[in-house]
């Protein structure tokens, strides 16, 4: 079900088309991310941060969104790949007269020493590899989610576009067609900024460097040094994961897991350690529908999943930074005030609003910024938070006295409030219910806090906590499990509906994986929520929104984990390989997948999905190790 690794384009129509989501590569600087299509166009990028207003948003409006393209002037074939173990993207064009490559990267702060402002820039290196290639360069910035269409004028080293309080400088030796008639009128929406015709012969190179609020001089030798530093940075980071022989993930899954880790690293904010769920907003879960959300924020639910994925691959620095972030959320105030989602800089006010001037991806409106989930009650987050904290202590992190006080307050709050309904992990926009997964994660919050007490000198009202843990367990087993279905259900109210989140029950040790109720849940999910290809829906029933959605990627990997834990190794491996057929040729995943077409849907790339892939591969590695151990025992 892979999309093709190369594609034919007609340059006369490519500018106006919406590319399939899986045809984009991403580059970034640990502050923001740019999406670059196989046609050589930057169709989405926000500066200076990933949650800032966009500079290019053609992804969300083909006519007025703005873009920055380097594209052959006639018909061509195109393909993309990453430079090995880096986040440096190469787009290769083949035309009737020759071949060219556009290399895109953004320097991370650690790799931009000595070049002022370099890390807030997109570097585009254009090489003619063979023959002669004619290219069109088009620079059409649109500040503030395309609400500002700037005039573009010449600068010292190229051209510059000025918004109300920001600027974008494009440095290059290429001569752009700039209107110097003296007419100061800004172009109307839909007009295409400035362009240039570029003809390169074999061996020729040109650089284009887009700097945010700073012009970077046209110095190719300096650009090459920045490129070398960026490549070295990414390869050093990727190699923190040991080679195949010693890595937790070996064999054919190793490279795919490393690519997922590299994608995940792009979503981690360098200063705060926060992880955005995705670098995009409003890519639809239902094309043409209203299920369009802004994912450029940090969901603390991801904590336990993220810590495990990063730590097991050797990235302890990032795992511990996220641990510190989790502790800071624990300590923000009363437990009732802890939100499911925060801004990447810790801001808690994320008002959701619509941008009605944008058409939306393939006319999927509304386009939203902000996310109303920050106001929701989601009880599972307390479990995710404390499971994440406990997970990180396995890798050497320490809980301070102040953090323990906050954890105690959270657990006391959970003991008092766990019986209340909420909107659950899937953030339904209908009436709250008593979701089974929320109850299980309240159990996990208490359970992990009790483990911390056992492993440290900290004191707590352990008798009260144990009583509450037992009460939750008994209630879930009584009201959250259906003998008729042979499975855990979605909620106490919806006891005839399934929820893929129940696959997490053995992963948080609520029940052992070989328990017949866990096995029954696995089988029920496979039967009622999964396709033959292994794609898994989130749940049965209504979520308060019109329209349908695709299969939820992380749920497929949860099924892989559950099967592997249950010792059903062959099923787990077969399912994992089937789901990985939907991964983009660049190793990236969105939030959802269309069951009929295999098309990626929703925001992209999605941290939850990439983490799911890593943890699925880790589960298969653990399963193989246990299998070898069992085999060795039998031989003995």
UniProtKB/TrEMBL annotation:
GO terms for molecular function: hydrolase activity, hydrolyzing O-glycosyl compounds. It comes from the Archaea. Gene3D superfamilies: 1.50.10.10. Signal peptide: none annotated. Residues 19-183 form the Trehalase-like N-terminal domain. One of its GO terms (biological process) is carbohydrate metabolic process. Keywords: Hydrolase. Residues 252-615 form the GH15-like domain. PANTHER family: GLUCAN 1,4-ALPHA-GLUCOSIDASE, TREHALASE. Belongs to the glycosyl hydrolase 15 family. This is Glycoside hydrolase family 15 protein. The lineage of its organism: Archaea, Methanobacteriati, Methanobacteriota, Stenosarchaea group, Halobacteria.
């Amino acid at each position: 079900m892979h999309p093709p690794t190369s594609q034919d384009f007609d340059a006369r129509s490519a500018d106006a088309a919406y590319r399939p989501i899986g045809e984009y590569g991403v580059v970034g600087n640990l502050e923001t991310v740019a999406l670059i299509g196989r046609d050589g166009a930057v169709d989405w990028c926000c500066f200076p941060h990933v949650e800032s207003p966009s500079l290019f948003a053609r992804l969300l409006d083909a006519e007025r969104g703005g873009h920055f393209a380097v594209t052959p002037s006639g018909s061509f074939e195109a393909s993309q790949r990453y430079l090995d173990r880096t986040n440096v993207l190469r787009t290769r064009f083949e035309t009737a007269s020759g071949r060219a490559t556009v290399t895109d990267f953004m320097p991370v702060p650690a790799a931009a020493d000595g070049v002022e402002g370099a890390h807030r820039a997109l570097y585009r290196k254009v090489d003619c590899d063979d023959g002669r290639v004619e290219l069109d360069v088009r620079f059409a910035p649109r500040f503030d989610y395309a609400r500002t269409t700037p005039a573009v004028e010449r600068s010292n080293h190229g051209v510059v576009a000025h918004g109300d309080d920001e600027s974008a400088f494009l440095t290059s030796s290429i001569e752009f067609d700039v209107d110097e008639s003296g007419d100061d009128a800004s172009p109307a929406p839909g007009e295409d900024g400035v362009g240039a015709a570029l003809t390169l012969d074999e061996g020729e190179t040109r650089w284009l460097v887009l700097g945010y609020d700073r012009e970077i001089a046209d110095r190719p030798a300096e650009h090459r040094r920045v490129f070398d530093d960026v490549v070295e940075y990414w390869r050093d980071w990727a190699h923190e994961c040991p080679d195949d022989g010693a890595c937790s993930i070996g064999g054919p899954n190793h490279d795919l897991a490393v690519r997922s880790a590299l994608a995940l690293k792009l979503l981690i904010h360098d200063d705060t350690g926060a992880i955005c769920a995705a670098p995009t907003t409003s890519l639809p879960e239902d094309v043409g529908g209203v299920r369009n959300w802004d994912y450029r924020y940090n969901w603390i639910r991801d904590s336990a999943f993220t810590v495990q994925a990063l730590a097991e691959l050797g990235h302890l620095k990032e795992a511990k930074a996220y641990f510190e972030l989790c502790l800071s959320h624990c300590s923000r105030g009363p437990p009732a005030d802890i939100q499911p989602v925060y801004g990447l800089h810790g801001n808690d006010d994320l008002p959701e609003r619509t941008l009605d001037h944008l058409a939306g991806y393939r006319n999927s409106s509304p386009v939203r910024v902000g996310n109303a989930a920050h106001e929701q009650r989601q009880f599972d987050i307390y479990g995710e938070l404390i499971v994440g904290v406990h997970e990180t202590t396995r890798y050497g992190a320490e809980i301070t006295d102040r953090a323990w006080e906050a954890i105690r307050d959270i657990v006391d709050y959970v003991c008092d409030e766990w019986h209340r309904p909420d909107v659950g992990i899937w953030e339904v926009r209908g009436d709250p219910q008593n979701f089974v997964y929320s109850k299980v994660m309240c159990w996990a919050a208490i359970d992990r806090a009790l483990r911390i007490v056992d492993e440290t000198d900290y004191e707590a009202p352990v008798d009260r906590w144990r009583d509450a843990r037992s009460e939750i367990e008994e209630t879930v087993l009584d009201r959250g499990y259906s003998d008729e279905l042979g499975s855990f259900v979605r909620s106490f109210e919806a006891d005839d509906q399934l929820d893929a989140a129940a696959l997490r029950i053995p992963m948080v040790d609520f029940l052992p994986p070989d328990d017949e109720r866990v096995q029954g849940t696995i089988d029920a999910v496979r039967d009622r929520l999964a396709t033959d290809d292994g794609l898994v829906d989130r749940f049965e029933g209504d979520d308060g929104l019109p329209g349908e959605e695709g299969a939820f990627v992380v749920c497929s990997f949860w099924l892989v984990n559950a099967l592997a834990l249950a010792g059903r190794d062959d099923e787990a491996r077969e399912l994992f390989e089937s789901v990985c057929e939907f991964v983009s040729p660049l190793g990236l995943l969105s939030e959802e997948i269309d069951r009929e077409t295999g098309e990626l849907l929703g925001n992209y790339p999605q941290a939850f999905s990439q983490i799911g892939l890593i943890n699925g591969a880790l589960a298969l590695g653990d399963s193989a190790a246990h299998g070898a151990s069992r085999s060795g025992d039998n031989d003995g």
